[in-house]
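Chapter summary example.
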Amino acid sequence: MTRVTGIFGKRLAGGALVALALGAAMPAAAQTAYYPVPGGPQTPISITLAIPVRASIGGSCNFATAGAPNGTYNIPGFIDVNSWTNDFTMQLVCTGPSRMAIVSTNGGLLSSASATTGYANLAPYDVAVNIVQGSGGPTTGNCPAANLKSSSAAACTLRGTASPTVGLPFGASVNLNGSYVRVSAPAFPGPDILVAGSYTDTLTITVSPAS
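The structure predicted for these 211 residues follows.
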């Protein structure tokens, strides 16, 4: 058996944050008009003007303070004979419809050691997300890490850098507990044998308001 160690790290790319200034609606101050009375005093006439002022606030989405799915996970044991899983918890501050996207640097657990015929230096694993929303059940999504690599042509809603049109869509989620990113894999199925070495990957996770 070949002992390998997998390390996951997360680099937070700043979530897009959009906010428009809010102007409170208020009526104009009461105005007083006067007209002359021939041969008499000035008589006041009070005129109230109601002028509606409208404003809007754009959606915003980011990770809460200390709420980003940050951390490193060292896989115990031998990934060619044991399954493994780990959750990175997260907490969002997304005030309306939003999106989350992920990019895998290596598309799997990669070793710097070279692999000759009959051996492999890349071990597959899966990435799943669970996003707790303010109403309704959670939004979930999952993809093999191979499909999260930026150069992958495979379909995966989670892949990419989040934008108003890119990423897994979800509803408002403000400081709610229970959201996480999960990484997992069964025992390495082969048929090749994993070379000895340290296996690593990095997931970059971004969020954005949705259009």
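To summarize the output: Confidence is low (pLDDT under 50) at residues 1-30.
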